[in-house]
Design goal:
single chain; about 300 residues; 8 strands; about 10% strand; globular; alpha/beta; TIM Barrel
Length: about 300
């Protein structure tokens, strides 16, 4: 039986996780930061993604962060929970847990080690979909996982009712466009690169799950709101204005630079988990300069 497709839209930051000095999740500080993002106008929260350092967490921490996300959002905005794992069995277990905890959807990364053949990939998502009643979204990021889900596979899984959306973090926007074309707006398509949010919206995407939404959430929301109200000029100017900051953050693949940048704005978010390392002071100074240009710092 096919699930009813529930669409998600807007700016949905992949929320950071705040850890203490021992690497344990700081429940209250994480909850406080999520609530700050909601107050800034974001349209949803994605918990336990790459930015949230889920791949470095224990299984108990994976469950804990889902609980925190549900508690922090409190029904004010949708909560999308990252439940992906290379193991189908563990993915199913985490997805069931997320549903029981109260998440609105699960976001499942591509199993990538060992990399499955296409049929194994199909069966992976089929197994998750048959185990839960809430929407299943794909998390496709070739830059991280070494391959992407093809638009044809997305369309096949959507047609068969096993996925209801995708976070497509693909450098080639043609890839995202082809997904939109093949699925004809019937599933949620969320852009994963902050530099491509406006172009993706113009092509028919529903919104974006972008790391920079943790740092400048109101600016990302403004791009979306301008677009939805037909103010393409202001949306374009806002998108272009954040490019230097996007490029700076892209120089690091761990969450340390992001967290150091967020600290500049006065938020106590701790440090990233190892193997993250210290960010050179000159990079921090460049981020500070860009935040000043955007009016975030004096």
């Amino acid at each position: 039986m096919k699930k009813e497709v529930k669409k998600f839209s807007g700016i949905i930051p992949p929320a950071i996780t705040v850890f203490d000095a021992k690497g344990e999740i700081d429940r209250e500080k994480t909850k406080k930061f999520i609530q700050y993002l909601i107050a800034e106008g974001v349209h949803g929260i994605f918990i336990a993604g790459s930015t949230g350092e889920a791949s470095l967490m224990s299984m108990e921490q994976r469950r804990q962060i889902i609980d925190i996300g549900v508690e922090a959002t409190a029904g004010k905005v949708p909560l999308l929970a990252g439940t992906g794992h290379n193991s189908t069995r563990i993915t199913v277990e985490l997805s069931k847990y997320a549903q029981e905890a109260g998440a609105d959807a699960v976001v499942v990364l591509l199993p990538h080690y060992p990399r499955p053949p296409d049929e194994g990939l199909y069966l992976h998502y089929k197994a998750v979909a048959e185990a839960v009643d809430i929407p299943v979204l794909v998390y496709s990021w070739p830059g991280q996982y070494g391959y992407s889900m093809s638009p044809e596979m997305v369309a096949r899984l959507a047609k068969d009712g096993y996925i209801q959306g995708i976070k497509d973090t693909h450098e080639d926007i043609d890839h995202t466009a082809e997904i939109i074309r093949l699925t004809r707006g019937q599933i949620t398509v969320l852009e994963g690169y902050e530099s491509k949010v406006l172009p993706a919206l113009c092509l028919g995407a529903d919104g974006g799950i972008c790391t920079i939404g943790n740092l400048i959430p109101a600016d990302m929301v403004a791009i979306y709101d301008f677009f939805k109200s037909g103010k393409i000029g202001p949306a374009r100017e806002k998108q272009l204005a954040i490019f230097p900051l996007i490029n700076l953050l892209a120089t690091r693949h761990d969450s340390q630079l992001l967290k150091d940048s967020i600290k500049l704005l006065g938020h106590d978010v701790g440090d990233a988990l190892m193997p993250a390392s210290q960010v050179p002071p000159e990079i921090i100074e460049k981020v500070k300069a860009e935040l000043k240009k955007l009016g975030k710092l004096k």
